Amino acid sequence: MTAGPADIHHPAGPRTPEIDFRFSQGVLRLEGESYPEDVTKLFGPVIAAVDAWLATAPGAARLEVALFYFNSSSAKAIMMLFERLDEAARHGTAVEVVWRFDAEDDSMEELGEEFGEDLEHATFRLEPVGEEP
Questions:
Q1: Architecture of domain 8-129
Q2: pLDDT tens digits, one per residue of 39-60
């Protein structure tokens, strides 16, 4: 089996999310805000790395999305990640997608539901954060 791509860690910037893709552990995380000036420059290499990793047929993958704001261009990039992971799930990879959102933010919850509806093979879970026990 060929080795996958190197793990990716981009710290959050003023307009970009933290991207912490630990291919070696099968855990991919996006967190923060995403409205970069050049979405292709930010997400193009990340999506290419995901493609290379998925080509190694990992047994499991988990994508954790905890964005509290993103623009439409970022939404397209996120959807591309979802599509790739859903396709991997169709071919036998155990894929879980976790959409974290502020419990007070109905808009992000609804966006998560919409993204989740497009997944046919991957497991999708909405996870509110910040709720009082």
A1: 2-Layer Sandwich (3.30)
A2: 999 999 999 999 999 999 999 9
**Residue range 100-119, pLDDT digits in tens:** 999 999 999 999 999 999 99
- Judged on CB neighbours under 10 Å (0-12, 13-18, 19+), 23 is buried
Provide the pLDDT confidence category of residue 1 given band limits of 50, 70 and 90.
very low
Contact 86, 119 (CB under 8 A): yes
For the chain, the farthest-separated pair of C-alpha atoms sits apart, in whole angstroms, at 46
Q: How far apart are the first and last CA of the chain?
A: 45
107 contacts 72 by C-beta, under 8 angstroms: no
**What pTM was estimated for this model as a whole?**
0.92
Can you read off the two tokens belonging to residue 3?
């080795």
Look-up of token digits 């261009």: 73
